[in-house]
């Protein structure tokens, strides 16, 4: 029997003695804001946008974690037909995001990610950084 809880905002992570790599007595708690920031960073990395432009929430779902991502979708420059064709459709890109987020979050959190909802709320293109004078 395990007393470890899911790494989900709204609940704290607790590990009982004897679980994990050490057998030291005590418990480990990860604050909600840390979990949310981790989820936001991983999802932003997978999607390919700045973490400030993405919104992520998580909740317990059946035997794992459900994640909701609201993000603009990165698109290639529209004047490059080869890049547009290689990018695939919006649904293809969203499905790749779902799969990659499920895989990476599950590995990092040590919990099964059972659902990933992706809401596309805009589009963004890669911008080149300007030199500051």
Topology as a string of helices (H) and strands (E):
HEEHHE
Helix content: 25-40%
Assign an overall shape. elongated
Spatial strand order of the main sheet? 1-2-3
Which residues sit in consecutive blocks of at least 5 with pLDDT less than 50?
Answer: 1-8, 12-19
Structural class: alpha+beta
Q: What's the number of helices?
A: 3
Q: Give the strand tally.
A: 3
Biggest sheet overview:
3 strands, mixed
* Rg of Cα set: 18 Å
Task: Describe the structure in brief.
By secondary structure, the protein is α+β, with helices and mostly antiparallel strands. The chain is 32% helix and 24% strand. The protein has three helices and three strands, in the order H-E-E-H-H-E.
Keywords:
single chain; 133 residues; alpha+beta; three-stranded mixed sheet; disordered N terminus
Characterization of this structure:
This protein has 133 residues and is α+β, with helices and mostly antiparallel strands. Helix content is 32%, strand content 24%. The protein has 3 helices and 3 strands; from the N terminus they run αββααβ. It has helices spanning 32-47, 81-87, 90-109, and strands spanning 55-61, 64-75, 113-125. It has a 3-stranded mixed β-sheet, covered by helices on one side. A hairpin with a 2-residue loop joins strand 1 and strand 2 (64-75). Helix 1 packs antiparallel against helix 3 (90-109). The longest helix has 20 residues, at 90-109. The chain is elongated and about 60 Å long. Mean pLDDT is 79; it is low at 1-8 and 12-19.
Explain the layout of strands and helices.
Layout: H1 32-47, E1 55-61, E2 64-75, H2 81-87, H3 90-109, E3 113-125
Parallel strand pairs: 2-3
Antiparallel strand pairs: 1-2
Helix pairs in contact: 1-3
């Amino acid at each position: 029997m395990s007393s470890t809880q899911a790494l989900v905002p709204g609940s704290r992570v607790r590990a009982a003695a004897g679980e994990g790599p050490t057998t030291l007595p005590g418990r480990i708690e990860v604050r909600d804001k840390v979990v949310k920031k981790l989820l936001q960073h991983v999802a932003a990395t997978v999607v390919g946008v700045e973490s400030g432009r993405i919104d992520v929430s998580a909740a317990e779902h059946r035997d794992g974690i459900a994640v909701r991502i609201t993000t603009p979708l990165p698109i290639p420059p529209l004047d490059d037909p080869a890049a547009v064709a290689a990018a695939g459709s919006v649904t293809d890109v969203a499905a790749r995001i779902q799969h990659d987020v499920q895989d990476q979050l599950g590995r990092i959190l040590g919990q099964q990610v059972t659902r990933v909802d992706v809401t596309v709320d805009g589009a963004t293109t890669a911008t080149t950084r300007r030199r500051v004078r």
